[in-house]
Amino acid sequence: MEKFTKLTGVAAPMPVVNIDTDMIIPKDYLKTIKRTGLGTGLFAESRYLEDGSPNPDFVLNKPAYQKAQILVAGDNFGCGSSREHAPWALLDFGIRCVISTSFADIFYSNCFKNGILPIVVSPENLEKLMDDASRGSNAVVTVDLENLEISGPDGGTISFELDEFKRHCMLNGLDDIGLTLEHAGAIEGFEKTNAAARPWA
């Protein structure tokens, strides 16, 4: 998993509450278990018109936001079903960070397992960031995980909190497999000892 230390990128505003996982990646795209290629289906029902062409009114189709790496979204982001395809689709599109006042628990957990940083901020700070994100190509925001700060295009900063274990995993690019491999030496030692003590096993 890619490490997350500091990210500077365009932030796209999505001032919509209760964006669920079906909205993030519709069920038609759940036929694959691959993590790649799902970016084309991200927000598909809003992002494309009935004829399959891009909807020019959808934020991620606007020239200023087509390469956005940060989403600033309304309350309760990622609610609904527990599909892990939702963070896969966000990551495949290029989104590395989602900022909101609240997240659904399973989606929140899945983000950390896939290298996406979900940040919880107060309603007042979300309003400031939503305003920053509304500046089009000037909506460049820096997320500094080491210092737990978000810097807006005008230089102002917002502090945020994060569980220290989750922060450690993101800073070091550790998913569940990576965490296990940190103990590879101890595991190998146990296997050798166990094999010597129980050769019949």
Kindly report the average pLDDT value. 91
Number of strands: 7
Gross geometry: globular
CATH topology: Aconitase, domain 4
Using the coordinates above, name the CATH class: Alpha Beta
Mind telling me the CATH superfamily name? Aconitase, domain 4
Helical segment tally? 8
Tally of separate domains: 1
What letter string, H or E per element, gives the SSE order? EHHEHEHEHEEEHHH
Structural class determined from secondary elements: alpha/beta
Short descriptors:
8 helices, 7 strands, alpha/beta, 3-isopropylmalate dehydratase activity, AconitaseA/IPMdHydase_ssu_swvl, 3-IsopropMal_deHydase_ssu, Aconitase, domain 4, 201 residues, single chain, leucine biosynthesis
Characterization of this structure:
This is 3-isopropylmalate dehydratase small subunit. Belongs to the LeuD family. LeuD type 1 subfamily. The chain is of the alpha/beta class. It has one domain (6-197): Alpha-Beta Barrel (Aconitase, domain 4). Helices cover 33% and strands 16% of the residues. The protein has helices at 21-24, 44-47, 85-93, 105-113, 123-133, 164-172, 176-181, 184-197; strands spanning 6-14, 70-73, 97-100, 117-120, 140-144, 149-151, 157-159. A seven-stranded mixed β-sheet has the order 4-3-2-1-5-6-7. The model has no long low-confidence stretch (mean pLDDT 91).
